[in-house]
Amino acid sequence: MNTNSLKEYSETTKKPWSVCLDERFSLIHRIRSKKCRLYSLGLGNDDNQFELSMANSGCEVHRFDPSIKSAHIQEGRHLWYHRLSIDWRDPNPAIAAHKLHSSTKKLGTVLNEFGHQKIDVLKADVESAEWKILENLILEDVVEQIGQLVFEVHIHWPGFEVSGNDSTVVRYWYSLLRELELKDFRLFHTYKDLSKPQMFLKKEAFNASSCYTLSWVNTRWK
User: Fold this and answer.
1) Per-residue pLDDT tens for 11-69?
2) In a domain? residue 20
3) Which one of 20, 77, 86, 104 is most buried, by most CB atoms within 10 A?
């Protein structure tokens, strides 16, 4: 179920970014046929072993990070870095014109610009922006173009532009997870990061973590 079986996988990966290699679903077959595509969303994270392992297995890997110095960098045959932040909205053109070295776009916009119809794996480690990004993917049906989701989620506070009391926030989170289920995404792996504070919506929570990594497979992708 994880990338241990992939070629040149590094055991130094700092956290488990697990993908589903079950023969019933498309990813393992697309890896074997060298037709796999991975998008990785990050914010200055130096841990890129997962991306490297997927690229070394023949996957086309695109890593989006606004902290990258150049607009586009190709590293090896299969790995590209893009100075781009994936957001839940496209920027106001008047504001964007003043920002010369950074860019923010919705994932659907990037897919159209890159000419990509599908993503086999979408990995996101975006420090509390994940809930709004996930909402956008669901509302615009972009999620149906994705084979697997591997998201780091944060629950120590509501997240960017998420408001309301605790019960409202929890219902909002739940509604997004429920929508994934209704679109036939199945959660197959969870990881509780015990190195992070034991917090839930700014309150101490025993035997919990403020950060989890969740992996889903789109069961419609056979």
Assistant:
1) 444 677 999 999 999 999 999 999 999 999 988 776 789 999 999 999 999 999 988 88
2) no
3) 86
